[in-house]
Request: fold
Amino acid sequence: MEPAPSAWDLPSAHAADASGIVGIGADLQPGTLLAAYRRGLFPMPLRRRKLAWWSPDPRGVIPLDGLRVSRSLRRSCARYEVRVDTAFDAVVAGCADPRRPHGWIDPSIVEAYEGLHDLGWAHSVEAWTPEGELAGGLYGVAVGGLFAGESMFHTRPDASKVALVGLVERLVDGGATLLDVQWTTEHLRSLGAVDISREQYLERLAVALERPL
Reply:
């Protein structure tokens, strides 16, 4: 089955809008990436050419007490097993599948986040079938009480949503305070994502960074 589009992939409406770009260039070394997240930035290629650093205004977040879990999604949660960090490379590969529309994850991004995972900063949350098949998942970066979601994918119905439910449950249990989804989409808004201003985001980020990892 061809992987479905990610809720966190850059929407085409934003692809031509560079108003959220605050820098061009630099590298994807771990220190650079972590410094960027601590300042409210994230990397994404600009039209598949230059590396750009983004700080959208407004910024999409999912309030940890505001995730919308429908009755049908709750039933789907019972059909999958949620695991953490057991298939990080496979999740990133699923998110980076070149057949996906509006995909932006190139080999340099894959290598950078696999490096962050090896260092303990990047994590995957996965939805597995009872037969042991990876059905979907998401990955992102955890710094203090921040989880910065990067991308998600699924090959089975609702699998990425189930991974998101599992992520939020674990963030709440761990005392996190901020789930960043970069931009809101219609799909993410249906799950509870909201837009906040850049100023509000940076204020919430400062609080989140004070939390223990």
